[in-house]
Write a structure and sequence with these properties.
The protein is an alpha/beta fold. The protein has helices at 9-15, 19-34, 78-81, 106-125, 140-152, 166-178, 189-193, 241-258, 280-288, and strands spanning 5-7, 39-40, 44-49, 52-61, 66-75, 86-94, 100-105, 132-136, 158-162, 182-185, 197-200, 222-225, 317-319. Strands 1, 2, 3, 4, 5, 6 and 7 form a 7-stranded mixed sheet that branches. Strands 10-9-8-11-12-13 form a 6-stranded parallel sheet. Strand 8 (132-136), helix 5 and strand 9 form a beta-alpha-beta unit.
């Protein structure tokens, strides 16, 4: 196997792939999977100890003529060692011959891909007039999401950074400030949750306890709950008006899948613009279906030709930015009120 291309994290970052191209690639992958034109297996997890596990993901696409596998190691105590908590590699193989074509650093690739998935969901679900963004967790994912979401939501002006340790919050604040944003360190998680857009990226721990209250979310907030799919069940810490609205939206989507009418069309989650392209509904379900348990992962119907009724401003919109391929994953224990027991499918990019 001579001549296998190896791309380090620095090589990938130096490519400078525009965020729009990343979103377009993900949208294509979602469409291909919705049409049953991908081969994806459930994520495999090997648990060593709480907060310490390995995961393997694999997928293949005849349309793209490649197959890929991603190997990830998660060690919650790596911060004390001065190492990244999540480390991974991606192996890309020729679909026809099986010959490895490239080996890529999985850390940088994961950050840009995960942030692009959140941005793709935000393109259809977030309010266009959003002005503030709050981060709970200020590591690499927070930096990636800030860059990706600013392109979709150019009106973002204020940034709230919450982290239990002040060092990473200060780094994110300074980075956002260098981009001309009004960035402040949040003293409590509620200050971050009070923003128009919320991104949570809480690292895997030994036994994470729920500490975020969905009641602090304002109506219409877009939430991207980033999780590595760590083993462990989430314990609810209460329900809020926003979470009840989300439940109503789940019921509305399930009724639509069954073809039965809804008694309350105002609970539908719809694109922020009536002019959204026809595939938007399929993309919306793929990018944020972790809020809608029970949706089929491989046989999504074609989106309706007519635009759905406008969504009420108070309807909650949630997105998990790390969906698992064709597997039932676990949600972040930190944000238990918006936990979902099922996650959408995707093909690896």
């Amino acid at each position: 196997m001579d001549g296998v291309l190896y791309l380090t994290g620095r090589d990938i970052a130096a490519l400078g792939v525009p965020p729009g191209r990343l979103r377009a690639a993900l949208a294509r992958a979602f469409r291909l999977h919705a049409e049953g034109r991908t081969h994806v297996e459930p994520k495999l997890t090997v648990t060593i100890a709480p907060g310490h596990f390995f995961q393997s993901l694999c997928a293949a696409s005849p349309d793209l003529a490649f197959a890929a596998t991603k190997w990830v190691g998660v060690a919650a105590e790596n911060a004390a060692r001065g190492l990244a908590g999540v480390n991974g590699l991606v192996i890309l193989s020729d679909l026809a011959t099986g010959v490895p074509a490239a080996i890529l650093d999985g850390n940088v690739l994961t950050v840009v891909r995960t942030a692009a998935m959140s941005a793709l969901a935000a393109e259809y679900l977030a309010r266009q007039d959003s002005e503030s963004i709050g981060f709970v967790g200020c590591g690499a994912q927070a930096h990636g999401h800030l860059a990706a979401l600013r392109e979709i939501l150019p009106g973002l002006r204020r940034v709230a950074c919450y982290e239990r340790g002040s060092a990473s919050a200060e780094v994110l604040r300074d980075a956002a400030g260098a981009q001309g944003l009004d960035a402040q360190i949040a003293r409590t998680p509620d200050e971050a949750l009070a923003c128009d857009v919320v991104v949570t990226s809480v690292p895997a721990g030994a036994a994470p306890a729920a500490f975020l209250n969905a009641g602090s979310l304002r109506p219409g907030t877009f939430v991207s709950a980033v999780t590595s799919g760590a083993p462990g069940a989430a314990k609810p810490c209460g329900r809020s008006t926003s979470s009840r609205r989300t439940t109503a939206s789940r019921r509305r989507i399930r009724r639509r899948e069954r073809g039965s009418p809804s008694a309350d069309p105002s609970t539908a989650i719809s694109p922020r613009s009536p002019a959204a392209p026809p595939p938007a509904a399929a993309i919306r379900r793929s990018a944020s279906c972790s809020s809608f348990p029970g949706l089929p992962s491989r046989t999504l119907p074609s989106p309706p030709k007519s635009s759905p009724p406008p969504r009420q401003p108070g309807a909650a919109r949630f997105c998990r930015a790390r969906p698992k391929p064709c597997a039932r994953g676990r949600s972040s224990a930190a944000f238990a009120p918006i936990a979902a027991r099922a996650s959408p499918s995707r093909s690896i990019r």
